[in-house]
Amino acid sequence: MRFAFSLHFLIQNGVDDVQSDRTKAQLLSQMGVAEKDVIYELLCDRSVEGGFRDTLLVLTAKGLFIACSRKELEGEKVFRGFPLKKNKRFRSLAMVTPGAGSSSEPEAAATADDWSTEHIPLEDIESLSIVNLVASGLLVVKTKEERAIAAFTNGLMSRASLLSKLFDKVKKGEEIEPELLEKNEAEENCPACGMIYPEPERRICPKCMKKSAIFARLLKFAVPYKKTVAIVIFLMLLNAVCALAIPYLTGTVLFDQALAGKGAFAGQIGLVVGLIILFRTLSLLFGILYGYLNAKMAISVVFDLKSAVFTAMQRLSLSFFQRRQTGHLMTRINNDSTELQFFFIDGLSYFIVNLMNIIGITVILLMLDWKLTLLCFLPLPLVILLVQKAFPKLWRLSWRSHRRVSALNSMISDSIKGTRVVKAFGMEKKEMTRFHGVNQNYAGAEQRYSKLSGTIFPVLNVLTQLGGMLIWAFGGWMIMQGEMPFGLLLTFVYYMYMLYGPIEFMNNIVGWWSHCMSAGQRIFEIQDAVPEVQDKEDAIHLSTLKGDIELSNVTFGYEPNKPILKGINLKVKEGEMLGIVGHSGAGKSTLVNVISRLYEVNEGAVRFGGIDVRDLSSSSLRNHIGIVSQEIYVFSGSIAENIAYVNPDCSIEEIIYASRIAGAHDFINKLPDGYDTIVGTGGYDLSGGEKQRLSIARAVLHNPRLLILDEATASLDTETEVQIQEALEKLIRGRTTIAIAHRLSTLRNAHYLAVVEDGKIVEEGSHSDLLAKDGSYAGLVKKHDEALKMNEVVLA
Amino acid sequence: MTTKTIEAATEQSEQVSTEPVITELAEAAAITFLDRSNASFRLTEGGMLAVEHDGKQHEAVYVHSSFPHSNRASYLSIRTIENKEIGIVRQLEDFDEATAELLVQQLQVRYFAPQINKLLKVKEEFGYSYWEAETDSGIVKFTVRGGVGQIKLVTPVRLLITDVDGNRFIIPDYTALSDKEYRMIELYM
């Protein structure tokens, strides 16, 4: 009996790999499992001790079957996203272990002895849980004692957590919903090549997306300007034609005809000079014209691109932003689109014209004298070789110096931002040393770059001029022999110099091309990303949001197997206030994210008046939910504009009412510029309390049915908090409110309180109920009281 | 200012910390240190680490290294699954050899990451780089998202590479790479 060594490619794939199917069947039969009894299988790829080794876990109604490979993985370990060559195993490899990678072709076939098998009966297992390790997970079974049965790398996390979930259901004898299995099986892989998408939220296979496809998409941005593009190219061609005429005029026509007194232009020096001036002027005019049009068009295109990216970004869910660094995204909007500006300015049009130039000039040169032409191309291979050798190195050095200068800049900025601390600890000397080190690094890198570029460019210049010298020498000899007129030689040299510019351009084109395509790809990545939270097609639109809010059995985590909320049940009656208390990190803010549908729940449902939020259109939800949180978004603009953010059409009077209710009116009027005070980056610096009042005023104007206060006063001092509290009370009146706080004083008006601990609700009831219970809440109140007392003592 | 004077000045400012401060800190921090006198480790039948400390049994504990990159085998925090610290092992020498081996083994369980001995190929395309490398666990192929933060120096020489799934790979000393290998990765660092 022969077993393929690795099982990766033989699990649940429907690939007609006879050998794999047989092997899997054999392994199952060795364990005494019929295929139809299999509820779920998981092939773990890591051994408990470290190293890659396969363990097959099979869950059936009878319990857990484990097949453990005795050998370490031979061959290669391929992780998610890595493109595999189209070999015979290709399909099966890529499709089989979605989520994780797969091992490549098994060279050695192994026998059943290479697998140790085991069965743990269902009744012996208390639980099957996952322990998170660093970049891996450990499956732990609790029988009489705990036991680690298998380990797996990160990519398998969601599958493993499904296994653990399914086990719970089997253990409790619950029905398994088919969609639970389907959801997991529908792992995204590219239909064309079978590769698993490196980013699940973006259903585009980077391997199958050809550069030409990006190119075509980029071109689409130029479509609205196709007339301008056509005109620009036409002007460029005219410019080139005029430019091409000049060497012929200054060389052959001037010297060999006008001056030599032969041919059509014999003796007509004035006419020839006039023609030269005319063509030069024309060429200049066309040049100016196309430069003007081109710049205008390129900037419009980049404007469109930036808007497209920013619009695409706004459409995405919160999770997209939290997974990426802000700086990174800003680069995409700014640098990448600027990069593409070069694509439209330099790229397209210059490419066409340069190509025409090269072809045109070469043809003219060959027609004039093919021997000389070959001669002037002689140093060209040398130039190309040098450029190919030296430029990558130059590019690397310039990158290095760029990196060092960023390090230097961030060091300076850190140090300046932290001046207060630096001075307080008397660490100025240390900062100087740090700066010195970074500065030296940068200087070194910059020197190396300058040295190389200082050498390479003069050499290149000499080489390009070498062609000219060769022609002078050889052509001079030919003139002496009377084989060639002087004017022709001159024409020749002029053309040759005209040729080097376009050739250099073409030499850089490969690097330039891939640079632009990468920028284009990064931009399209945002455009193609699928928002996690999406409106259903038949989403219900409500003009008013009424009724109770109900959370039933809500489970949610930002990452698989790290649930933050675990089976939360809550109910808030219309017009009432629910207070949520708990330590920081208990999951309070996550709860808000889920209720306001910034994130989608993993399990359970959030309902407004009996309607699942997933069935509601996002606009009807957003129109009726107001959030006042610690994070306050103040954009650059006047205070009035900031208050009117959600309701820009409101009257001035409304703005004043709202800020009056929020207790902001007084401080605003105290400012020299009143409501016209410019705030935000570079503007007037609002204090924490002032900002908070601004955001409350905003919420008052928004007039939401459901108000969420997420630690609205947490960052404020006690006195300010008391003032804001009053403003909040005015806001809360008559609205359904969910208030989250770790300061209990904020919640004194709550009708109902829920205590959250470690993602679960541990206590709920009214203030007095909970106090009577003498549980967690009573404990929190006690601590709070003590803290307050201390405050009083300090204040006294 | 010259380098020398700067260095001299730095030395001066660093000399402030002295022994008595450490004792005070130790009292305030009240960390339980485990050694052979107060704790004993064993492996359960299920292959989990268990520890007995001051007469109390803790089944299934996990070894977290405080400095997983710069000094993996020192200041090992022994924690339960609820992330409660039972105590810290200052260094492996505080236990007998068998226990030390057991702890090292547990570190490997938690921090397993293939160490790259040789880079075979690094190719960038469309914002992802595709890596092929020989590691102590065989040849691996993985994909790294472009941009900042996926490839970082965690000590002056140790390079940590994180792939699209969060799997970790380590180049223990990038200065020991050959010129060719270094050129492959320089642009990503």
What does this structure look like?
The complex is a heterodimer of chains A (796) and B (189). By secondary structure, chain A is of the alpha+beta class. Chain A folds into three domains: 183 residues, Roll (PH-domain like); 183 residues, Up-down Bundle (ABC transporter transmembrane region fold); 246 residues, Rossmann fold (3-Layer(aba) Sandwich). Chain A contains 23 helices and 23 strands. In chain A, strand 20, helix 21 and strand 21 form a beta-alpha-beta unit. Chain A is extended, with a radius of gyration of 36 Å. Chain B folds into two domains: 109 residues, no CATH class; 71 residues, no CATH class. Chain B is built from four helices and twelve strands. In chain B, the strands form three sheets. Chain B has a six-stranded mixed beta sheet with strand order 1-6-5-4-3-2. In chain B, a hairpin with a 2-residue loop joins strand 8 and strand 9. The longest helix of chain B has 15 residues. Chain B starts with a helix and ends with a helix. The N terminus of chain B is likely disordered. Chains A and B meet through strand 5, strand 10, strand 11, helix 11 and helix 13 of A and helix 1, strand 4, helix 3 and strand 9 of B.
How do the strands and helices of this protein lay out in sequence?
The complex is a heterodimer of chains A (796) and B (189).
Chain A: E1 3-4, H1 18-31, E2 40-46, E3 52-60, E4 63-69, E5 76-78, H2 90-96, E6 102-103, E7 109-110, E8 115-121, E9 127-132, E10 136-142, E11 146-153, H3 157-172, H4 178-185, H5 211-222, H6 226-259, H7 269-315, H8 318-322, H9 326-368, H10 370-376, H11 380-417, H12 419-424, H13 428-480, H14 486-528, E12 549-556, E13 565-572, E14 577-581, H15 588-595, E15 603-608, E16 611-612, H16 618-624, E17 625-629, E18 637-638, H17 639-643, H18 652-661, H19 665-670, E19 678-679, H20 688-702, E20 706-710, H21 718-732, E21 736-741, E22 752-757, E23 760-765, H22 767-773, H23 776-795
Parallel strand pairs in A: 14-21, 14-22, 17-20, 20-21
Antiparallel strand pairs in A: 1-7, 2-3, 3-4, 4-8, 5-6, 9-10, 10-11, 12-13, 12-15, 15-16, 18-19, 22-23
Helix pairs in contact in A: 5-14, 6-7, 6-9, 6-14, 7-9, 7-14, 9-10, 9-14, 11-13, 13-14, 18-20, 20-21, 22-23
Chain B: H1 3-14, H2 19-29, E1 33-34, E2 39-43, E3 49-53, E4 56-65, E5 74-80, E6 85-91, H3 97-111, E7 116-125, E8 128-135, E9 138-145, E10 151-153, E11 159-162, E12 168-171, H4 179-186
